[in-house]
Design a protein that fits this description.
With 143 residues, the protein is of the alpha/beta class. It has five helices and four strands. The chain has a four-stranded parallel beta sheet with strand order 2-1-3-4, with helices on both faces.
Length: 143
């Protein structure tokens, strides 16, 4: 085996995670995403985690990215929390990540595929849908 082949190592693990959601007018809309952040932080206490929103809510990606860079992160994974890969995922998210690369050149930014493309999420959604087939009917559709 060549020495260079033995010396190769995997890239360093990310020390930051930027979860990127769409955003909405109602701040309560963000509650499920904040629960995701809480679960990630509980599972990986040493990982710097920020939640950001493309629209209407704060922080935006630039603000959350600046927080992660200021915390000393050297590698941040940006995970779009979108079910589909529409215009935001195809255009807006890569533009925001490119802006982070420009603003913080000492940080390696990795754009992960949107969560809607993850088979684990697809299976979870199917399980939830099937579970509701046997659920008792609700009188209030908003509950």
């Amino acid at each position: 085996m060549e020495p260079s082949a033995r010396m190769q190592t995997a890239p360093p693990a990310a020390d930051g995670l930027l979860l990127l959601a769409h955003g909405a007018r109602d701040p309560a809309w963000a509650a499920p995403f904040e629960r995701v952040v809480a679960h990630v932080r509980a599972a990986q206490p040493a990982l710097a985690v920020q939640l950001a929103f493309l629209e209407r809510l704060t922080p935006n990606p630039a603000q959350a990215g600046a927080t992660l860079a200021a915390a000393g992160c050297r590698h941040v994974v940006v995970l779009p929390l979108f079910l589909g890969s529409g215009g935001h995922v195809q255009r807006d998210v890569p533009q925001r990540v490119a802006a982070l690369v420009s603003a913080h050149p000492g940080v390696r930014w990795t754009l992960a595929p949107t969560v809607g493309n993850d088979e684990l999420l697809v299976q979870a959604l199917a399980s939830i849908a099937l579970r509701h087939l046997n659920a008792p009917p609700r009188l209030d559709p908003g509950s």
